[in-house]
Amino acid sequence: MKHIASSALHLAATCLSSTVLFAQPLPESEEKQLVEAHCNTCHASNRISSSLGYSQPDWQALIATMVNLDGNPNREKITAYLAEHFPPSTRRSPQLPQGDIRVNFKEWVVPTLGQRARDPIEAPDGRIWWAGQWGNIIGRIDPQTGEMREYSLPAGAKPHSVTHDSQGNIWYTGNKNGTVGMLNPETGKITEYKMPAPNAKDPHTAIFDSKGILWFTLQHSNMIGRLNPQTEEIKLVTMPTEDARPYGIKIDKNGTPWVACNGSNCLVKVEPNSMTLREYPLPNKNTTVRRLDIADDGMIWYVNSGQGRLGRFNPQTGEVKEWPSPSGANSHPYAIAVIGDAVWYNESGMRPDALVRFDRKTEAFQSWPIPTGAGNKQIYAGIVRHMRPTRDGNLLIHQSATNRIILVKPEGEKK
């Protein structure tokens, strides 16, 4: 079993399980210095104060999902300090409307601690792949046996997401070294494709169209990319709006890519041949969109992350309709998937991170807390950053803060 060496990295990762909506300074004490020494190597310590809060055993359980600190002389001091100053609270509790659908959560804990496992996807052979961004790995689960295997990537890749092509090769976005990579699962060989421009630094989310062309976003580079694996040609275009931050990307039934803007109130349509971009502004200027998905009727569903709303865009008429998410304006919807008559997404600003189902016919919401197991405990650490359906109509999600890949099986609905 592989483990990332630095305990600082792992303790920092526990702090990243939440947003900074409720951040406050850490209380002064000797233990504060220990916490800052471990956490601040990777991010500001205000991530801790914005968490849900836990008892000391639960802080220990949460940290144990990131790193094995058995024998570390500072573990008790750190967790006692955290429990005293950041005990369990309900300040970010979600609203969980009830309904007739039941869900079953099946968890897999991935081998390498602290990797921040994310973005699971089902490959054509039924195996599940994920990206371990902080561990610089991608991994595979056999859902029938539970067997897992992890593959180390070229130095500095830090994969943001994974996808697959029609031949079963696994592709990842090298978010920190400006590459897109392909893994041949049969041979273990990795082929890297470097971005052709020095300012194209952070490939983010990728998806194949029906012709075998890979489309991908580059969020902070503010670009959209296209890779033809046959010719190895990469073409990049810059977004019309400065700092639009292209994030999620999906392909409609006509082979046209659509992109979500995480830095602006827009959706963007990409003309596949010329890569001309057409921007569709969304009504509220404070809207930001993490991800989107496209229903079988062509409607584009998106999460209005900045306003805590679920949205629908009609590409034929330009009509936009939005619904307030059950937990309100600070719920920060993040991942989204359309399966049949249901739109699934999560409220990443809440603790526990809530899984939400919206019925497209009745416009009714139903929500469930997403668990993160730790022995017999549920520590609810969050968060889901991407979700994708399986071929049999189930849902793959994750809890990146605690290295869980999760299969959600809805019961009581038609698929």
TrEMBL record:
The record's GO molecular-function terms, alphabetically, read: electron transfer activity; heme binding; lyase activity
The signal sequence is 1-23
Q: Which Gene3D superfamilies match?
A: Cytochrome c-like domain (1.10.760.10), YVTN repeat-like/Quinoprotein amine dehydrogenase (2.130.10.10)
EC number(s) in its UniProt entry?
4.2.99.-
Q: Does the keyword S-adenosyl-L-methionine apply?
A: no
Does the keyword field hold Membrane? Answer: no
**Alphabetical UniProt keywords:** Lyase, Signal
Top-level taxonomic group: Bacteria
According to its UniProt record, this protein's enzyme class is lyase
Q: What is this protein called?
A: Virginiamycin B lyase
